[in-house]
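Curious: can you check?
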Amino acid sequence: WDCVTLGCSYKPSPRDTGELDIEWSVISPDTTQKDQMLVSYTGGTKYFYGNHAFERELSFAAGDPSMGDASLSIALLSPAHTATYQCKVKKAPGVDMHKMSLVVMEKPSVPKCWVEGGELIGNPVSLHCESAKGSTPLKYTWRRERAGSIPDGAAQNSVTGELKISNHSESFAGIYLCEANNAVGVESCMLNLKANKPPNRAAVIVGTIVGSLLLIFIFLVFVALLYWKLSSRHRYEKELSNDIREDAPPPDSRPVSRHTSQSASQLPQVTYCQVDGTEVMNEGLSHTPSSTSHGHRPVKHTPAEYNSKYGYAV
């Protein structure tokens, strides 16, 4: 960055006998706000206000401001220094002040160039140019290198940096240069604009149709395989459900135990007899009472009756 000196010279009158006081400040654009003090010189001493970085940027141009030169020097100039400055010199009873405006402009940065539209013949194409930095107003200008002027049919916008071609053709192909400039500088960028032939529409259509048919065929094959798999599974489950499974062989028959035979042979024997006109049933071994017991008559046996469980009584 460059540096700048804000001039401020003074000449005391013979009546000004007071102590010399010099002040530099920035006038606030808002009248309700206080001005910002920058540097001052009082009693042979220099005072700086603000941060240390600001102190390194500002200084009195003269080594001794008391000799009539109170100019202010600003190093590392940037757009942030744009403001209205005031120099005030006081030596009682005299006092005077001077205001000046400083406008710091930044030159454009190297712009960026790019193409939109595919560079196909017959299609619209736009060339763009833009600087990221730079004081306004910025002006953009397109021109073609080593191939003559830009053909008719192209319109450029100096504010946005766009060069628009409504119907691209081979006559527009070439190297283009874009310049971005303002009051303090200029920068440029270049690009190579091509004119590409569009693809064969018939081939594109045929390719699209073939691709679509191929996708449909793949889909049908997938559906057929899925249907076959599900049908095979269903048929297998149906056949499996109709199969007659062989049961396990029955257990071997057990021989009739002697206990069972003995139990059957030892079934109680039943004898029916009539005693004193009362029918008595005796279970157990048959016993023929004595004809002389207790003076009763001999027992009269009645015919055997059939029992549903044991058969005829013996």
Observations:
- The CA atoms of residues 203 and 233 lie 45 Å apart.
- Residues 266-312 form one domain.
- Residues 256-300 have pLDDT under 50 and may be disordered.
- Helices lie at 52-57, 201-242, 258-265.
